[in-house]
Amino acid sequence: MATEVRVPTLGESVSEATVATWFKKVGDAVAQDEMLCELETDKVTVEVPAPAAGTLTEIVAAEGETVGVDALLAQIGEGAGKPAEPAAEKAPAKTEDTGAAAGSNEAKMVDVMVPALGESVSEATVATWFKKPGDTVAQDEMLCELETDKVSVEVPSPAAGVLGEIIAKEGDTVPAGAKLAVLQAGAAGAVAAPSQDASSSPKSSAPGNDAPAGTQSKSVEDAPAAKKAMAEAGLSRDQVQGSGRDGRVMKEDVLKAMNAPKAAPAAASAPRAAVPADDASREERVKMTRLRQTIARRLKEAQNTAAMLTTYNEVDMSAIMALRSEYKDVFEKKHKTKLGFMSFFVKACCHALKEVPDVNAEIDGTDVIYKNYVHMGVAVGTPSGLVVPVVRDADRMSFAEIEKKIAELGARGRDGKLSMAEMQGGSFTISNGGVYGSLMSSPILNPPQSGILGMHKIQERPMVVNGQIVIRPMMYLALSYDHRIVDGKGAVTFLVRVKEALEDPRRLLMDL
């Protein structure tokens, strides 16, 4: 008896989708809940799992076709289908077992699979393999790194043994759950190409200095995060001293080099009509990372979709600086975290959003969704690009809780450890360009949000206060907002309330 595979519910205002990719073909065996295909809508990407185990007998909707809700996609029949994967899993590794006599009689084949990539991420690109076929690996040792639209994902070894075959090469795009490589679990020693390694023993047997000099072997790959960081900072390989195994450059090494006086900013690339041959020979073309491509696409979508407008104001930071100076030591001693400016800005924005809820809302088709919570996005610059982790329910948090959460998310963002869940669901965003010295700028919306606050450099300027010219630490504030939902009056009111709360922090305590 055949089982029908149909288009699932796509969302409240979504009635159709496009078949993007089939991960199975007719005749393939499928397990229950195994991903069959992926659908794309104008809002989200939807994965379609198998409703039952069996064999895929018919694909009704081919890739590229537009289908409605509950439309028939495919048919699954009874039967075992093609036994390719089970056979590979159970095949004993007799051919390469010559060096495993001391450890075990037989090496078991273990598949290295693409891990879960996130709620709305269905595929990744293989960025770098750190091991090659024949290399000995320890359990949980990093084998390769994958790049998605949002984060980099490290793939550890599921068992100790020898890497047998690499199925997905560098640059290949792989779906979630795909096979990356085959590992001979229990096999001992890398008998294949031992001369290419600086040391013939496994990593675990050399806890000391693997590379006596600062030189790097030709076969050693730098960490992917380090490569990205060097590309972003405009640093060449010889400008960075590697501290990893065999002289491998790690991300921390790049950050040290960036902070050195010789560090140079990354050169911005722009398309040009014609380039003289002499100039072309001195240029380097580097493919954009998936993260950078996504940032570019989303920023352009924000400009094309929203009726974006920016309003400005300035705030006297004297009161906050005095309050922070007076209580920072006591605050740190009690809460084990530093008192910065971000908690004041988050609190001030939460306070203002209650009065002007339009800035905390979003447009969905012809509807406006008002949110009775504040999930505050905090933009963080990383070597790979800008990421926006979310402080959830910021309106319910104390100053100390906000500072701790922002510090934690910022560190995870710079280390490339943020999960998809930590970067989704924000309702409003704060971007602090002042840490880089920006005096004034117009931030771009983070869709589908309707507002983003830009903080800038604190600079002393002469101000007239009570008829007297005094020097005050001033900061420009910029609110970019979607004029389709937020009126000019609401935007100005929001920014004025933020200014008032920052210039007199007692208003936050009194809810004024």
Total count of helical runs of at least 4 residues: 10
Q: Kindly state the percentage of residues in helix.
A: 10-25%
Q: In angstroms, what separates the terminal alpha carbons?
A: 68 Å
- As for the number of domains, it is 4
- Give the total of beta strands: 27
> Which architecture of the largest domain does the CATH hierarchy give at level 2?
2-Layer Sandwich
For the record, the CATH class of the largest domain is Alpha Beta
Structural class: alpha+beta
- Quote the beta fraction: 25-35%
Unreliable stretches, pLDDT < 50, 5 or more residues? 83-105, 190-219, 262-270
Query: What do we call the CATH topology of the largest domain?
Result: Chloramphenicol Acetyltransferase
- Under CATH, the homologous superfamily of the largest domain reads Chloramphenicol acetyltransferase-like domain
- How would you sum up the global shape? globular
Mean pLDDT: 78
Radius of gyration: 27 Å
User: How does the major sheet shape up?
Assistant: 7 strands, mixed
Give the key terms.
single chain, alpha+beta, OB fold (Dihydrolipoamide Acetyltransferase, E2P), Dihydrolipoamide Transferase, 22% helix, 27% strand, globular
Describe this structure in words.
The chain is an alpha+beta fold and 512 residues long. It has four domains: 3-77, RNA polymerase II/Efflux pump adaptor protein, barrel-sandwich hybrid domain (OB fold (Dihydrolipoamide Acetyltransferase, E2P)), CATH 2.40.50; 88-196, RNA polymerase II/Efflux pump adaptor protein, barrel-sandwich hybrid domain (OB fold (Dihydrolipoamide Acetyltransferase, E2P)); 224-259, Dihydrolipoamide Transferase (Irregular), CATH 4.10.320; 293-510, Chloramphenicol Acetyltransferase, CATH 3.30.559. 22% of the residues lie in helices and 27% in strands. The protein has ten helices and 27 strands. The chain has helices spanning 84-90, 224-233, 251-259, 277-280, 290-305, 318-335, 342-355, 399-414, 488-503, 506-510, and strands at residues 3-6, 16-22, 29-30, 35-40, 45-49, 54-59, 66-68, 72-77, 108-113, 123-129, 136-137, 142-147, 152-156, 161-166, 173-175, 179-185, 308-316, 362-364, 367-369, 376-378, 380-382, 385-387, 390-391, 428-432, 451-455, 459-465, 468-482. Strands 17, 20, 23, 24, 25, 26 and 27 form a seven-stranded mixed β-sheet that branches. Strand 18 and strand 19 (367-369) form a beta hairpin. Residues 83-105, 190-219 and 262-270 have low confidence and may be disordered.
